[in-house]
Each structure stands twice: as structure tokens, then as C-alpha cells.
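In keeping with the milestone schedule agreed at the kick-off meeting, the structural modelling team has produced records for the first pair of proteins. Each record is given below as a sequence line and a C-alpha cell line. The laboratory manager (R.T.) confirmed that both were archived under the project's standard naming scheme.
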Amino acid sequence: MKRHIFRAILAVALAVLLTSLVLIMGVLYGYFQDRITAELARSTAYIAHGLETQGMDYLTGRLPGDSRVTWVAADGTVLFDNREDPAGMENHAEREEIRDALLLGHGTAARYSDTLSQKTVYYALRLADGSVLRLADTQYSVWTLVLQAMQPVALVTLLAVCLALWLAGRVSRRLVEPINAIDPDAPGETAYEELAPLVGKLRSQNRRIQRQVEDLRRQREEFSAITENMSEGLLVIDRETRVLSYNTAALRLLGAEGPVKEAESVLALDREAGFRRCVEEALAGRRWEELLEREETCRRVLASPVEQDGDLTGAVLLVLDVTEKEQREALRREFTANVSHELKTPLTAILGTAEILENGMVRPEDIQHFAGNIHREAQRLIGLVNDIIKLSRLDEGGYAAQWETVDLYQQAGDVLDQLAPAADKKQVSMTLEGDCALVRGVPQIIEEIVYNLCDNAVAYNRQGGSVTVTVSAAAEGARIAVRDTGAGIPKEAQDRVFERFYRVDKSHSGGGTGLGLSIVKHGAAYLGARVELDSEPGRGSTFTVTFPPAGT
């Protein structure tokens, strides 16, 4: 702005200077022309007086001044000229100044003289005898005056230009200084009344910008709070795959290290082909979905294009952790396959035995044996169905029974009484140790936990082994420990024994369904209890369940 003001002031100053020079030269030109005409008039009158008194002798003598003198008769014939031969000169009757002098007594004219080849001022005076005396003098043109005054004019012009430059710079600085002093962020009063509307506009604009910035900041904080508390990963990218916004869940699910760098491509966060395909399809305007599996994790990426006014501007990527869902789906498929297999075994036995009986292929004395097989497999089938129902209830929280205070020692004693026949058949001794220990829970679930632990201890024990059940009360809660003298569980299988239908050694299953420890695990989780396993191959196993204190 200062440069523009400086140029404007300088241009005005120079324009005024040039205009002044032109006007001055014009005035001088007019002034000199008037002076020349007046001088010619005086000289003409003086010479006319001499001519009238002395005649031609006066003209041939020494004339005053250096003007050209011409004497013209009334008919235009040149009688005398001090510069040229009168005989060779044309008739002057039609000359303007001669014609005016003959009519008016005197006349003036200014024109280029063909004889002198320059602009000349003429003055003519009519004499008493009717002839005309004319004097001519050279008139200086404007350019002649300029050239003659070139040096002083150039000096004055140079001084004027320097002064104009200095004044233009000084004035422009002083003009711009109050404008530069205006603070756009906090405009105060201005020295120029003309700038008051601008200052007011700046104040209003600042208030509006502050409100907008505050709204944007609040919206950004709300958006950040929402996205940062999402378990799903969120990524917003532009058409060049640069990350515009993201949350920490996205970095965690994609396995990215550290924050996203400025203008970093989203493809640098995950280089899997499926992830790249999601990005490419979304930026091509198509919604896409991919399942990414890595080690023990499983993530689902949903990519959607973002359009604005019909133009594709970027994409939004949503990353979901579906590991648990996929695991549950895998467990469901495995559970369904295992249930089908476990149900098929007793049903096949029952069906085969029934077909033998139906076809009369059994001797009368063997009917009781085959009927016993049917009864045993049917009981196994019923037990399997009951265990599946129990697990389903525990999974879905379907137990509607009231919580009660249960004596864990008494409950263990009742269970050992129920298992006494099976233990005697296998010659396994059972011992109950400890004292009264109260727990809060659903009696049916507590009974299932204790029963399945003790039943497994008997079923997977060696012939002539022992089972020791210890009940104790401690500050952290009641505890029951079931120790057997069986074959033990290998270290690598200890994390899997609580899976449904899993057996360490299927050849020594003891006729169980493979759901006992699953019921124990889910029942303990339902009651808030903790299950621990301590086992070594060849030295037996100890299962310990610690219940929360009865008062909690």
C-alpha cells in the first residue's frame, strides 16, 4: 500500500510540474510575442516619422535596430526592403498585415516567411501618402525558448523531482503509519475518520471468527472425546490417501507404532493386501468390506467413500475388532460339531442294539444285557443333553434361582455321598477335610461345580487311588480344593481342559461327556469365583475354586 501511495503522490507531483512548465512556457511565449509586437510598433512609428521627413534617404541610411524594413506602395508594389532586392519581390497587396494597414491604418501578422524560412512577426503602418511601412522581426518558438532555457529548466526540474521523491516518501509513510498501527486482532481507534467503518468491520469480523473458532474447538473436542472412547478404529482420508483424522483405537487395531505423521498415507499404517484393497475400492467410489486376520487377532475393515457436491473427496474407514466374535463363531461351529458327534455315539449304540433285538437275533438269556446297554447309552444321552442345557443357561445367564448362603463343607459332603458307589466300584477312597465355610451363590450352580470336580477326580483316577476334598475359609473367601491321584495333566493341555468336549486322553474318558470342567468354569464365572489348576503328569491334579467372601 505504501508503494502505491508513494507512486501516486510522485505521479501527481510530476504531472503538476510538467503542467506548470507547459503553462509557464506558454505564458512566456505569449509575453514575448506581445513584447515583440509592441517593439515593432514603436520602431515602425519611429522609422515612419524619419521616412516622411527625409524620404528615401532616411531608409538608405543607418536604420535603428536590426529589424527587416519594407516599404510598400498603396498598390502592393515593394518600394524598398533592407534585406532583399525589391525588384525581385512579389506584390504584397494581399499580405494580411498590408491589407489591414491599408484599411485600418495598421496591421499585425505572424507567419512563416518563405524568404526568411522562419516564423516572423509583422507590423505594418499606413503613411500619410497611402503607402505602408512594415517591420518584421523573428519570433522565437516555444521549443526555441525551451532549448535556450534548457540548463536552468533541467536544474529546476531535477530539484523538483528530488523534492517530489522526498515529499512523496515522507507523506506516504505518514499516511500509511496510522493504517499499519491498526491491530487486526484488536483494532482500536483510528486517526482517519474514513477508516472507522473498516475498523468496525474488523471488530465484528473478529468476534464472529472467535465464535466460529470456539464452536470448531468445542466440536473438535466433542468429536475427539467420542472417537477416543470408541472401541472401533476410525480413519478419515482424502483422495491422495493422506490421513486427515484418526483415533488411537485405529492405530492399536492396525498395529501402527506412534502417532500418524503429517500428510502420511494411510497405507503406511497397514500394508496387508486386504486393507489396501479397501482403501482403493473406497476411493474408487465403492463401499467395501474386508476381514483381516493376523496371528490371533481378527479385524473387519469397513470402507465407505465420501462425496461432496457429487465429487469424491475421500473415504471413511471403520476398523472393528471381531476377534472374540470370530472365536465365538469358531467355538459355536466346534461345539455344534462336537455335540453332533457326542449325540451320535450313544444314539448309534441304542439304534444298533434296538435293531438286533427287533430282528430276534438275541438269545433270551442275553436280552437283559442288551437292554442294559440301551439303558446305559440312554442315560449317557440324557446326561449329555442336561449338561448342554446347563452350559446354555450359564452362557445366557438363564438361572433365575435366588442367591442363598450355602455351607460349602456340607455341600461337598453331600456330593461325596452321591459319588460313593462310583468310587467304591473303582476302589478310590474319598476324604473330606476342613470345616464350615459359607458362600453366597445359586445352590444349583455351587452343587454343579463341586459335583463335576469330584466326579472328574473319581472318573480320571487310577484304580485304588484317592480323592481329597479340602474346604477352608479365608479372608479372600471360601475355598474348595479337590486333589486326585490320577495321571495328571500335561502343561500344554492345562489351558484347554476347560474347553467343551476337550479330553486329554479320549481313550480314558471314563464315560464322561467332556463338559464337566466347562460347567465348572462357566459356573464359577457366573458366581464371580476363581478356578485354579495345579497338575503334573504322574502326580495327579488339584483343582481349587475360590469364592468371593459371603458378605460381598
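The second protein of the pair:
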Amino acid sequence: MATVDTTDTGELAGFGYKQELDRSLGSFSSFAAGFSYISILTGVFELFAFGFGAAGPAVWWSWVVVFVGQFAVALCFAELAGQFPLAGSVYQWSKRIGGDFTSWMTGWILIIGSIVTVAAVAVAWQVVLPQVTTKFEFVGGAADAGYYNTPNGAKNAIILGAILVVFATIVNMLGVKIMARINNFGVIAELIGSTILVILLIFHFHRGPGIVTHTLGTGAGHSWGYFGAFLIGGIMSAYVMYGFDTAGTLAEETNDPRRAAPPAILRALATAAFIGALLILFALMAVKNIHDKNIAALGLPYIVKQALGHTLGNIFLIDSAIAITVCTLAVCTACIRMLFSMARDGRLPFGSHIARVSGTRKVPIVPALFVGAMSLILLAVNIANQDAFVTLTSVAIIMFYLPYLAVTGSMLAKRLRGEWPRPAHGPYFNMGRWGLPVNVFAVLYGSLIAFEIAWPRAAVYGTKWYFRFGAYEFIGASFLIGCLYYFLVQKRKGAQVLAEHRAEVPTIPTPAMGEMAP
């Protein structure tokens, strides 16, 4: 009778891979990876002005809607994380519950979306640091501080963003332990800072919570009235609440990932959503003049400094800058693992080089350099045309929602065929009888939100037609290139673990606890 290795390394061998990455992360680091990716002090500080300007205070309700939808997706992911604790999360999950083409396109689209997201998050330094001191405004002057959609503001955003991308690249090359320590520190600072900020805003209320029912006339001019304005403003929330699957992406570097990753995914999203909801609500209640035009121009940093004063406000802006730093770090980390995971399966050109792991740091070096270099190139787009960068940023978000939809859709197909949960599911996270309705809702939500963001609106993408239809153009081109590579190269050779990455022991699937070994 074969002996089954039930250690984390043995379970990984059961999937055909040998342990190469540094398995040293605990449950908090797993949670922190997902939380820092969502990063409330990054997303809300960067996008509050857009949401408020488009839909007024009532845009707060979009936060609730998006959370409910994304939590349904997260519940599906939690089931998968307990069954397939592998680097590359969404790619690996789609590989095992979907078809070969689905898994290839899922990984391909996510890699592109992740690289664009790195650049998009990095420019958020421009929103906060120049408002702390104009010494961070290397190009332009005080009039550009806090803006990245003006000529000088855009150039300065690139300088700050490039510094941050280089930092994130170097840290990821130093190893997952150093990355996790920096990320954990950043997450703790964000948790403490955002909690204190929410509490302090309570003492500066100028109105009650009923403010979230006010639209400030933003529905005027929309063919659908306020609902049209709400759909645009709600993109703010959709832009923030994703990336919670990162806890699953670091599964091969996490101890006991079958048990640690599922709750980490759910806690990361729930914690971020709860703090974000309070922060947006209390900021609306604390601003002195709700009709102040600076709110739609400078956003949450303006409200914080107005309510708490210059010195205290700057402290929270610095905390936000720390959150932006670790958010960029987390996005880089997730993309690196995606590249590594696909490359060792022989699904990328030069796979052996891309999947090679440093002997001392136990981290893929080539993917880290690739992600950093491509992000720097994308940052340069913001010099020539800010509308192009806004379009790319919006497209990047869709390029997460589509792979998420591919996974939840594949899972739903298996549920309807009675193939999920698997008989060998074991004691790990399981939605039970709620699985089917939650899965159906996750698919419906994912379909609607992807269409909602891609909708060619001048208010989001600008007036030029090639920017308004940028989502369809960019994603269509990415899909076409992915199809050409798959059918001309990948399908012919198939997905096969590269020899140097295969498990050194016989591939015996590790049974879930309480099951009989084969």
C-alpha cells in the first residue's frame, strides 16, 4: 500500500509540483496579502473624488452593492482555495474546474490586468504625498499637488510611481519573508490608522447618516436619471474591492494553506469593506460644506485635512502612502506568482527561465524584473495622454472581473452537473446547500459588473471614440493575441509541468482528512 505524505510539501507533490518557494507565511501574512491588495487607504483615497463627483453622497450605497456581489465571489474562491492550494490561484483553479483554453485565457488576461494595475496603483502616491508637502511635487507647483490628470501632475505621478515600482520590484526579489514583513507592517499601520481615522471623524460630524440619501442633483442630464449617475459613480467601489484571491496565490508559501487560505480570503474582503464603508460614510458626515467643489477635485485627502487640521491630516496621508506602498507590493507579488505558475506548466514562452527560482531567496527573479519593467513602460503612457491611462486603468479592472467570472462560471457548470463539491472535498471550506444560489449570484454579479465598467461612457473614458471603446479594443486585442498563441503554440504542445519543477516523488494525490488513500 502506498504511503501518502500529508505534509504541505507532500500535498503539493500530489498536484505534481515540487516545493520550490519559501513556505514560511502564517495565517496573518496570508490575510495581509489580500487586505493590502484591496487597500482601503489606497482605493478610497484615490477614487473618492471620482465617485462623489459622479453620483454625490448616495454613491455610498454602491459600496454595499459591490461588497455583496464580491463576497459571493469570495465564498466560491474560498471553496477552491481549500481544494487547490497552489501558486497562481485563479489560473490554477480554472485549470482544474474548467477547460484547457479557459485556464490559459484566465492566466493570460490576469497577467496583463495585473501589470496595468501595478502602474495604476503606483501613481496613487501623487494623490497624497504632494498634499503632505510640495517637496514631492518634482514637476509643476502647488496647483498640481494631488492631481495626476494635469500635464505637470501626470509627469510627477510618473516619477513617484516609478520610484514605487522599483522599490516593489527590489523587495519582491529579496524573498517572500522580507516582502511579508514589510507588507504585514503596512497592513498593521493601515488597520490602526484607518480605525483611528474613523473614530476621529466622529468628533467632527456636521450632519447625520441620512446624507447618503442625497444625490446633489447629479442625475441631471442622464437619460436614466440618477440611476445613470449611480452606475458611473459606483465604478469607484468596483475599482477597489478585488484582489482578495491573493491569499490563495501565496498558498505554496503559506503553512497549512488548505485551512489558512479560505478564511484569509473572506476576512480580507470583509474587513476592508467594513472599514471602507465607515470611512466613506463618516467622511461625508464630517465635511463642513457638502457642496464644496474641492470634494470632487481633491477627494478624501481634502476632507481629512479640513476636518482634522493640517498636521493630523498629514499623518493620515502618510499612513495612506504606506498603504499605497504595500498595495503596489502585493499586486506585484500576485502577478509574479501567476507568471511563475503558468511558466512551470509550460504555458509561456521561455518558461524554464521565467519559472526558475533563486536558490537562496527562493523567489522567481525573472517574473519580478518583467513585471517591474512592463509597469514602468505603462507609466510612460501617462505623459502623452492622461485619457489613455484612465482607459487602461479601467480596462485592467475588467481584466480581473472576467477571469473571476470564468472561475465562478466553471464552478457553476460543475455544480449543475453534480460534480461540485467533489466527493473528496474533505473537511475544508464548504458552502453546503448555499453553494448553488451563492454561485449563481456570483456569476450574475460578475457578468453585470464587467459590462457596467466596460460601457463606453464619455464620463469615464473621455469623448474620443477610441478611448470610449477602449475596453472592447484592448481586451479584444488581448483575447485575440491569447487565442493565436494558444491555438498555434499552446494547444499543440499541451500543458505539462516542466521537468525541473515536477515532484521528485510519485504523484499520489493527497486525500483530504478523513478519506482513504488510493
